Amino acid sequence: MGREKLGFTNSVKLLLGCMALFMMLSCASADNPSLSAVPAQSEATETLPKIDQQTSEEPDTLGQESSIELEAEQEENIVEEIIPSSRGVSDTTVRIGIIKTGDVFSDVELGVEARISRVQNEDEMNAREIEIVQVIDDGGDPQKALEAAQSLASQDVFAIVVASVAADKAVTDYLAEQNIPFFGWGFLEGFCYPNKWGFGFNGCLNGHALNISGATVDDSSLRITKIFYGREPTITLVTTSDIAGDAMEAAVNKVWGENLVAVIKIPPTQDSGIAESIIEGINNVDSDILWLSIGLGKTLQAKAQLISSFPGMVVDDVTYLPGILREYETSKELEGGYVFTQFPPQEEYREASTLIATDLENVNGPLIYSQAISLGYWSADFLMYLLNQIGEELNTRSFFNVANIQGTIYSSNVSGGPCSMMTALVHQDPSSGLALLQVRGGVFRPVVDFNCPKRYWEE
């Protein structure tokens, strides 16, 4: 299959600009840049829970287990209503499809193929072969994404890997109505409750913003405290002055509390003078970290100037794009800055990245793999795990029962891989895996390795 060069078109800007700002919310224009007051701290939020406190304190297992039991009880009737279809399943194969936005996730199918290749090479006796029926590029168009879903459904596929910025609620609702499980990166609303057929390899990222009962906020940014040697750092957040930016502000405030000392809002329509607006906003603010969550284009425009002007760390949440540093000018703009990533970074050279690299050799894949490949790989890994848990009696009802009612613990079982997740909670909670990298000498260098919070099922 062909590998297109990643181009930052309108679809890319949409993804990277809104992903960390809760992509299911609209990106509307608003006021001029302003330094807003920090919202009142939630009663449920501690001032700043340290990383070691979060991972070592005794978890509230009783409440979480009760929530699972209640959910299971409510859904038993739903299971009975599901027609046990073996669509796309034979004794030897499971048929799947892939929907992608090509200029964003150009080579996602390589990641899926690489993971599939391992089953064939290891000759797992009881494993069904995964057959990719078709890869459809929706071009970032929601109507084409829906048509792609309908086309694949007509071809009798059992599951779909969704790597699309256009798979809106109409698309994911359609897949759920057809009882088609879909896997991918959980930034889309369809990966969250009440949809129970979407499985993000990193959970549901927007459960808190969607006000899903019991959903937890993503506290992964607290990993950055590890490099402050016990001192609690302060943060200035730069986000957009729209509903998505408001959601980002609320989420960061919930996690960081009074250590979020300032919030600067940039209109999503502002295309120039962004660094100057931010510098003016932080003129009288004393903080350790400047966190940019304003999208790729604005970040690239402003980051170099901010790195030279701001005395602390300048961090963003979009520029970890393997291959982006090959362009000299881009590399210069990012030099010395930091970036969060929800994907296990290959620069750590841990077991997870070695495993992907080895499997990519089986399909003649690249040495440096993209986020799209990583997305495809771990999505396929999650799918194959659930298929193995179900075993021979695979159909739509048995899948739903094992994944959502009985619940099982998905784990990549490799060092540096995605965080383990309780599948019965995957539609409400993020996995909260995160790494911090710095651009030094024109390459990404790990500063805080990818790691995961300890969950109650790991005790």
In a few lines, what is going on in this structure?
Strands 1-8-7-9-10-11-14-15 form an eight-stranded mixed β-sheet, sandwiched between helices. A five-stranded parallel β-sheet has the order 3-2-4-5-6, sandwiched between helices. The protein folds into two domains: 26-58 and 217-342 and 435-458, 3-Layer(aba) Sandwich (Rossmann fold), CATH 3.40.50; 84-215 and 348-431, Response regulator (Rossmann fold). The chain has helices at residues 10-18, 51-56, 61-81, 108-122, 142-154, 169-177, 243-256, 274-281, 296-309, 328-334, 351-362, 371-390, 396-406; strands spanning 34-36, 93-100, 129-137, 159-163, 182-184, 198-200, 235-240, 260-266, 289-292, 313-316, 338-341, 409-410, 421-422, 434-440, 443-451.
What does this 3D model show about the protein?
There is one protein chain. α4 crosses α11 (351-362) and α5 runs parallel beside α6. The chain is of the alpha/beta class and 459 residues long. The strands form 3 sheets. Strands 1-8-7-9-10-11-14-15 form an 8-stranded mixed sheet, sandwiched between helices. A 5-stranded parallel sheet has the order 3-2-4-5-6, with helices on both faces. It contains 13 helices and 15 strands. It is globular, with a radius of gyration of 21 Å. Residues 1-14 and 20-62 have low confidence and may be disordered. It has helices at residues 10-18, 51-56, 61-81, 108-122, 142-154, 169-177, 243-256, 274-281, 296-309, 328-334, 351-362, 371-390, 396-406, and strands spanning 34-36, 93-100, 129-137, 159-163, 182-184, 198-200, 235-240, 260-266, 289-292, 313-316, 338-341, 409-410, 421-422, 434-440, 443-451. The N and C termini lie far apart (43 Å). The protein has 2 domains: 26-58 and 217-342 and 435-458, Rossmann fold (3-Layer(aba) Sandwich); 84-215 and 348-431, Rossmann fold (3-Layer(aba) Sandwich), CATH 3.40.50.2300.
